Amino acid sequence: MSITKQYLKSKPVCKVTFTVPAEEAKKVAVVGDFNNWSPKESALKKLKNGTFKGTFDLPKENTYEFKYLVDGNYVNEPEADRFQWNDYAGTENAVLEV
């Protein structure tokens, strides 16, 4: 799994690309407080090599909690900027700082 960030000089956004190797998975989405935890808004596209990938424009100078939703199971990004405890879910969420 990986995250790449590309800051744009012309706009106050960061292009964030999420990559998830999940050859056996049917559906992968990235859900977080930037999309109201909705998998419909953030499905990743499956590539021929079995990796799921998607790029999203997120406003700069913000912090977002997120997880991957892989075939209905929540998975954290091990390379997240940090982790934040979430009392509602009773677990840690990955945190993205842009």
Give the H and E element order: EEEEEEEEE
Main pleated-sheet profile: 5 strands, antiparallel
What is the number of helical segments per DSSP (H or I, 4+ residues)? Answer: 0
Strand proportion, as a percent range, falls in over 45%
Mean pLDDT: 94
Quaternary status:
single chain
- Please state the CA-atom Rg, rounded to the nearest Å: 13 Å
Please estimate the helix content.
Answer: under 10%
Number of strands: 9
The figure for the number of domains is: 1
pLDDT below 50 for ≥5 consecutive residues: which ranges?
A: none
What is the CATH fold-level name?
Answer: Immunoglobulin-like
By CATH, the architecture is named Sandwich
CATH superfamily: Immunoglobulins
CATH classification class: Mainly Beta
Q: Tell me the span between the first and last alpha carbons.
A: 18 Å
Structural class: mainly beta
Principal-axis shape: globular
What does this protein structure show overall?
- The chain has 98 residues and is mainly β.
- It has one domain: Immunoglobulin-like, CATH 2.60.40.
- The chain contains no helices and nine strands.
- Strands 3, 6, 7, 8 and 9 form a five-stranded antiparallel sheet that branches. It has a four-stranded antiparallel sheet with strand order 1-2-5-4, with no helix packed on it.
- The chain is globular, with a radius of gyration of 13 Å.
- The relative contact order is 0.25.
- The model has no long low-confidence stretch (mean pLDDT 94).
